[in-house]
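FORM 12-B: Structure-to-Sequence Request
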């Protein structure tokens, strides 16, 4: 039985669900090329698929209950733009910040460029300042 070809936006949604929300980090290679290029790597993130998987493992340690939701997607040609919101509870160190037990809600946008049915290049823009404020590292914005 042949599986229907999935849209690129569905592949991204499946990745967010299987890998990020459900913690199956080992499945990352189903969605990304071995030599994937992260245009805006997380601090300390190494190159390629291994670097991406290490960064994702770190996020899961810091936020073991993290859950990602797709708010909207635009697919055109070889690119998918996904606006997302993720939530989680800070249970482990991230970016040098020890666990606080605080719940966070973080928004962002990721632009993925596909080659075939896998992501070859990705760029994530995430509200890191908002995350740090929610963790108590930065003062909250004043009115």
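FORM 12-B RESPONSE
SEQUENCE OUT:
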């Amino acid at each position: 039985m042949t599986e229907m070809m999935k849209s690129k936006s569905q592949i991204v949604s499946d990745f967010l669900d299987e890998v990020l929300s459900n913690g199956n980090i080992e499945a990352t290679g189903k969605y990304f090329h071995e030599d994937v290029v992260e245009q805006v790597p997380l601090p300390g993130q190494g190159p390629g698929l291994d670097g991406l998987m290490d960064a994702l493992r770190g996020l899961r340690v810091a936020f073991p209950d993290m859950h990602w939701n797709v708010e909207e997607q635009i697919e055109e040609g070889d690119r998918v733009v996904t606006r997302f919101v993720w939530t989680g509870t800070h249970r482990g160190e991230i970016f040098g910040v020890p666990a606080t037990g605080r719940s966070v809600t973080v928004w962002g946008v990721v632009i993925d460029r596909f080659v075939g049915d896998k992501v070859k290049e990705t760029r994530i823009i995430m509200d890191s300042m908002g995350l740090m404020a929610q963790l108590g590292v930065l003062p909250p914005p004043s009115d």
